[in-house]
Design brief:
Layout lengths: L1 H11 L27 H5 L28 E8 L5 E11 L3 E18 L5 E21 L3 E14 L2 E16 L4 E15 L11 E9 L5 E7 L16 E8 L4 E8 H6 L11 E9 L3 E9 L5 E10 L2
Length: 320
C-alpha cells in the first residue's frame, strides 16, 4: 500500500506551484460563474465533491471521476440563485469500448432582463439581457488500475446586451482510491485557459483553481466525510491563508435509497459576513432519493446568511 501511496504523494508537491506566476492569481477573473456549485448533491456538500465516484456531476469538479462510472448516467439540474438568477446544468457520462470514459457537461446562467439607461441614468425604454454558457467534453481513464486521470475541454460564452466574450479552458484531474480503507484523494487544476474574445478591449483571466481533496467512509457508520481545499493557487500574504478556502461535506447514507447531506464552506461564510452577524451563512444541507433502481432525485439548500439562500434540484437517470 505504501508503494501505491508513494506514487501519488509526489503529485501533491504541485501545490507549492501556487507561489509561482504561472498559477498565481489575485484580480477578479472573468467567467466567475464557473465557481458556482452546479449540482444539488455537490452543493449540499458545500462543493467538497472532487473524490465522489459514479456520479456524472463530479466531472465539473474533477474529470478523473469519469472513469469510476459503472453504468451510463445522465443528470439534469435547475437552480434558483440570488436576485432572480436562474441556472441549469446537464451532465452525461459513459464508457466507450476499451478507449475510456467520456462525459458531456453543460452549465447555463440567465441573469434576467434589465432596463437600459443612457449616460445620464435616464431610462430609454429598452431592455437587455445577460447570460453565461459552458459546454464541456471530458475524457478519463486509469493508470495501473490505481490512479484515475482525466481532462476536460471547455468552451465558455458570456453575453451582456450587445457585448460578447468567449474563452476556452481545460480541467486536469487525478484521483487515487484506496478501496480497502474507503479513502479518496484527488488533485486537480480547473479553468486553465484564456479568453478568445473580450467584452471590449481588455482580456481578463479565467478563475484558475488548484484543488486538493480528501474523503473517508467512516467505519461502522453511514457517514462519508470529505474535505476540499480550493483556490490554492491564489496569492496570499501568509502561507496558512492558502487553506482559507476549504469546504467540508458529510453524506449519511441510511439505505440504498435515501441519503442526507450537510456541508460547510469557510470561504462563503467569511464572504457573507455582515457586520458582526454571520447566522448560518456558509452552511448547506440536502437530500438524495433513489427509486425504481434507475431514477435519482437530489435537492440542496445553501445559506448565504442575511443575503438569502439558494436552492437546487437535480433529476438523474441510470441507463440499464
Amino acid at each position: 500500500m505504501l508503494r501505491k501511496i508513494g506514487f501519488f504523494v509526489p503529485l501533491i508537491t504541485l501545490l507549492f506551484l501556487s507561489n509561482f506566476k504561472v498559477f498565481a492569481q489575485t484580480e477578479i477573473p472573468a467567467f466567475d460563474f464557473l465557481r458556482v456549485e452546479p449540482g444539488a448533491r455537490a452543493s449540499a456538500l458545500a462543493g467538497a465533491f472532487d473524490t465522489y465516484t459514479d456520479d456524472p456531476n463530479a466531472m465539473f469538479y474533477n474529470p478523473a471521476t469519469l472513469s469510476t462510472i459503472t453504468q451510463n448516467k445522465v443528470s439534469g439540474g435547475f437552480g434558483k440563485y440570488l436576485l432572480d438568477i436562474n441556472f441549469g446544468t446537464l451532465a452525461y457520462a459513459q464508457k466507450y469500448k476499451d478507449i475510456g470514459w467520456f462525459g458531456l457537461g453543460v452549465k447555463y446562467f440567465d441573469y434576467g432582463s434589465f432596463d437600459r439607461v443612457d449616460e445620464n441614468g435616464v431610462a430609454t425604454g429598452e431592455t437587455f439581457g445577460a447570460n453565461d454558457l459552458m459546454v464541456s467534453v471530458g475524457y478519463s481513464n486509469y493508470i495501473y488500475e490505481v490512479v484515475n486521470y482525466g481532462v476536460t475541454v471547455k468552451y465558455l460564452y458570456s453575453g451582456i446586451a450587445e457585448y460578447k466574450s468567449s474563452a476556452v479552458a481545460l480541467d486536469f484531474g487525478l484521483l487515487y482510491l484506496i478501496p480497502e480503507q474507503q479513502i479518496g484523494i484527488s488533485l486537480g487544476v480547473n479553468n486553465l485557459g484564456a479568453q478568445l474574445d473580450s467584452y471590449i478591449d481588455t482580456k481578463e483571466k479565467l478563475p484558475l483553481d488548484l484543488r486538493l481533496s480528501f474523503s473517508k467512509k467512516l467505519e461502522h457508520t453511514p457517514a462519508r466525510i470529505s474535505v476540499t481545499f480550493s483556490k490554492l493557487n491564489e496569492s496570499r500574504e501568509k502561507l496558512i491563508q492558502h487553506i482559507k478556502s476549504f469546504s467540508i461535506g458529510g453524506e449519511f447514507t441510511f439505505s440504498e435509497h435515501v441519503a442526507v447531506r450537510l456541508g460547510y464552506s469557510n470561504e462563503k461564510r467569511q464572504d457573507m459576513k455582515l457586520g458582526t452577524s454571520l447566522g448560518i451563512a456558509g452552511f448547506s444541507t440536502g437530500l438524495g432519493i433513489k427509486f425504481a433502481d434507475k431514477y435519482m432525485f437530489d435537492y440542496s439548500l445553501n445559506s448565504l446568511g442575511k443575503v438569502g439562500s439558494t436552492h437546487r434540484v437535480n433529476v438523474g437517470y441510470i441507463f440499464q
